[in-house]
Amino acid sequence: MIRPELPLIDPGFGSSVRDPRPGVAGVKPEDLAAWFEERGEPAYRATQVLDACWRGSARSFEDVRTLPGSLRTALAEAFRWTTIESETFVESDGGLTEKALHALSDGSNVESVLMHFPGGPGRRERWTLCISSQAGCAVGCPFCATGELGFGRDLETAEIVDQVRGAAGRLAGRGGGAHLTNIVFMGMGEPLLNLNRVLEAIAALNAPRRFGLAARAITVSTSGVVPGIRRLTDLGPQFTLAISLHAARDALRDVLVPLNRRWPVAEVVAAARDHARATGRRVSYELTMIGGGNDTDADADALAELLRGDLAHVNLIPMNPVAHTPWRASPALVVERFAARVRRAGIPVTIRHNRGVDVGAACGQLAAEHAGQPLAAVVARRRQRLEEASARALRGDRSDEPVPAGVGE
Ligand code: SAH
Ligand code: SF4
């Protein structure tokens, strides 16, 4: 947990004991096959379980009628059918966005957001699911509601993919062929600080015998964990990489993305550039646009200079207001002006709007309201600190605060 001096809210992470049984959807097929082998069962039993887990409508091992009763019981003793204990849903954007709050076995809560983008002329219909990789986040970007919660724990592989299984099941239940077309790791947490589990989850989502989603339909978003980006590049598969850049200048990025003090902008962009070259895939750079913060002409020019000639795409997203910050979204005209300046350098720019803003379900804005409201006096102190830090950053001073403990060690 970072910023221990500012205990804003009690997120209630992990207050009860975690169920020790692994979630079945996170178990590697070879491990499941070995489990059956140990019991003298044929290898096709593992395939039956995987098929039921990823494709069927079963809601428990008991529903998997292709298996004998004794095996169903043994499976339920060894594994959990799902790691999500209970769920609540909130709809917004006229039904186009649905936020799910998932309660896990130890009492941690994480969220996922399902977004519908109806088709149109020259546009395919999309169903995008934004998923969480950690309960809370240690990076602590000051404009992010998740960062404000601090770090709870890494999610298990099954806890990540069960968000997807749940949404896929709900969509299948609607009928009419609706299905998930895209998955983005833009919910709670920093995926590259839980990389082993995230990679296992991606393998499950990508494998034809399991979820079977094309690698390029899966986007991993990072605040700039350079060794993690390099590991992704070495793996080779063509996932989409999104970098949460927010600022091209170190002094400002030190404040907006505290991880920058460990891996500065030039190192992050160099790793992303190598990734684009190695995979032939455009890297997305995300900038949350903060009024009077990172939206000046000087910032646009610094960004254009940084990315000139790269295989890159810039997404500008007006900041969703978060209670504890002194900041607000940049006005639309300012965002357009910023976009035009960056485009002049030949870099494609899209202005996006976050979904689910009214229910706190915008990607990256996920933080459960049930965590409780921060105290007004603490918010005021935090705002003052942020204002001072951003004023320093805008003057071009590097931050003198230490890198948050537990980040990127
Ligand atoms: N930790 C990873 C992935 C989750 S955050 C990362 O930072 O990339 C997903 C995205 O939502 C990030 O680009 C993040 O900067 C953005 N985001 C966070 N808080 C936001 C806010 N209040 N308004 C708009 N975008 C926000
Ligand atoms: Fe963590 Fe991403 Fe939020 Fe930063 S923006 S605190 S890295 S979840």
How would you summarize the topology of this molecule?
Layout: H1 29-38, H2 44-54, H3 69-78, E1 84-92, E2 97-104, E3 109-117, E4 126-130, E5 134-136, H4 145-149, E6 151-154, H5 157-174, E7 182-185, H6 195-206, E8 218-222, H7 226-235, E9 240-244, H8 250-256, H9 265-279, E10 283-289, H10 297-307, E11 312-318, H11 332-343, E12 349-351, H12 376-395
Parallel strand pairs: 4-7, 7-8, 8-9, 9-10, 10-11, 11-12
Antiparallel strand pairs: 1-2, 2-3, 3-4, 5-6
The protein binds S-adenosyl-L-homocysteine and iron/sulfur cluster.
Structural notes for this entry:
The protein is an alpha/beta fold and 409 residues long. It has 2 domains: 28-78, DNA polymerase, domain 1 (Orthogonal Bundle), CATH 1.10.150; 84-394, Alpha-Beta Barrel (TIM Barrel), CATH 3.20.20.70. The protein is 34% helix and 17% strand. The protein contains 12 helices and 12 strands. It has helices at residues 29-38, 44-54, 69-78, 145-149, 157-174, 195-206, 226-235, 250-256, 265-279, 297-307, 332-343, 376-395, and strands spanning 84-92, 97-104, 109-117, 126-130, 134-136, 151-154, 182-185, 218-222, 240-244, 283-289, 312-318, 349-351. Strands 1-2-3-4-7-8-9-10-11-12 form a 10-stranded mixed beta sheet, with helices on one face. The chain has a two-stranded antiparallel ribbon with strand order 5-6. Helix 5 packs parallel to helix 6, helix 7 (226-235) runs parallel beside helix 9 and helix 10 packs parallel to helix 11 (332-343). S-adenosyl-L-homocysteine (SAH) binds next to strand 8 and strand 10.
